[in-house]
What does this fold into?
Amino acid sequence: MSKPEFKIEKYSFCEKGISDLQSNHFAKNLWPVVYLLSGGKNKKKQAYIGESTNVTSRMNTHLSNDVKAELNTLQLISSEKFNKSAALDIESSLIRYLAADGQFDLLNSNLGIANHNYYQKKEVYENIFEGVWDELRAKGLAKHSLPALNNSDIFKYSPYKSLSLEQEQGVINILRCLLDTEHNTVIAEGGAGTGKTILAIYLFKLLLSDEPIYVDETEDSSTSILKSLVDRFKQQYPNPKIALVIPMSSFRGTLKKAFRNIRGLNPKMVMSPSEAVKEKLDLIVVDESHRLRRRVNLGAYFGGFDKTCESLGLDKHTCSELDWVLLQSHKQVLFYDEMQSIKPSDAKHEDFYKLKRSPQTKITELKSQFRSRGGNQYSDFVNNLLNVNLKAGTVFNHKKYELTLYESLPDMITAMQQCERQYGLSRLVAGFAWPWASKNDKTVYDINIGDISLQWNSTATDWINKKDAQNEVGCIHTTQGYDLNYTGVILGPEISFDPIKKEIVIIEKNYFDKNGKQSIKDPAELKSYIINIYKTILLRGIRGTYLYACDPELRHYLSQHIKVVEQAKPQERVTPEIMPIELVKPFVNAIPLYDFKAAAGGFSEQQSIEDIEWIALLEGQQPSQDLFACYVVGESMNKIIPDGSLCLFKANPGGSRNGKIVLVQHRNIEDPDHGGTYTVKMYSSEKIEEDGVLVNQRIVLKPETNADGYSPIVIEDGGGELVVVGEFLSVI
It folds into this structure.
């Protein structure tokens, strides 16, 4: 039995428990360890995560703190493989994931979150952290799986993030501006995916956390600088009035939910522009400030806009929401990207240019791409692709980012469905090239391309996270600001390519966002907005982007620079036929085809050739004594085995079965797909050591499905009556 790579040991968090640490090998020898303090008197338990090379001394320090003294349990995480960098890394990972998990109200500040590179970080320590997390789940200290948390908005928009040097400098620049008397405004410029939203939330947590910031001698100077600036801000503004303004209602709702789960933050801090300017504030932070509006194409919002302008004494015809923010706050931080302005109602670029030239404005830049695994290479490629600036023969290629152009929309949709099953958060997104007919009639389809019929997003608020969103198509208004794992982009018939002029062209009649084109007289202006829309949605994907272009000229242009997936040719599935009995040579030219649906016991009983149906294997497959076939029905394994598939099995497989798909029989099994005592599932066993021998404690038979209603089958008796009939090899 292999020695575990880490231990999690429980102690009481009190003087006696701290004394007990003296007998712990890692504690008494000043070894780097990670710890989790938990408990408290509140309805929602509190927790504090830390690391130390002198954990006994650190516990005494925590015990003297009035807030932490209310905690009662210490979980000590130790390993012979821990060094200082590894301990800092495990600590910061625990802070990030436990904050998103929601089991505890974390007492940690967001300073000191590490992001160290060190020897064998990926090879060893990432696996150790996964093991630590699984054990915390087993102890009831964590609830969700790591993949589920990675896809959650609470995790994505958590302030417990390690910052890059560029981001750290951005925060330092912002804090210095907030403290000096020379500047009122910071404009933080950065393209899609450069971490503007994360920085905004990080700043909020930094300024509002009541947890004292601990900095030890191993921390770098930037952390000390940040701590000093934050301390000065809190002295200058002991009870700051601040707001985070999000112009887009959909994204605003998502961040309100994220703020609800962060200690020190409150959903009420996330506001619309009109809510934020009802009183004078110390600080207004605006994310996506390029989407602040002016009095153009506002639809139902005209009345509200005019009313706010009147209350502030501003001319409604010349001002914008940007003017509201500048008027109603002493200091402003504006996260801005000119390239994400997508409609005429957005505040004018000229207003931001004027503001940037003011001596009272400080500018900080965010250049590094953090959302996309393709990094700056991918964002630069998208920019050059849509501006037709790529050299002939340039084709995007990146080891960590998947960019493909599909000849067939059905094939792209199939690929996106696979991404959704494997990674989650994979969505279809399109340009606004079709009217939103289904908004008022849920029975009609909006997007009809060949044999494919699709509907636009059925909600305008937090559509990304809506159930069944993967079966709908989002637009720029429901995706701007969000992260996706994969984006399937449909470039609509409003965008084409002129092979003579070698430029992107816009077909205005095919663009259906009324508020996005009304009042535009200059075709170049409309083109600029539509190009910005596609740039923005092409930069949503973390892992990859799939494209389908409706216009053939545009498709041809894109194919010169993006790897093409040719239209899949329909393949006829060849099913082996039942062999006439007179031709059967058992296990020489044929294998048995059993019907386990009837649970007739045919696997374990001796049967004559005449009692069994026999099939010949397809070309390239060799019959043998241990092979048999049967049909697998139902949806419980549909990720691997479609309903009704004829499958090949190996009888009586030896060796470890963990992680393998097997056909089993047990008298207590009632398979939900056919009610029999046989079932096909993924096998997992939990073993314990008894007298030096590993024995099964329980067996878990797991479904591999994207269908609802299927749960693992758990056999608690150690599987004594379980018969593993065969190991799944393939669908025939």
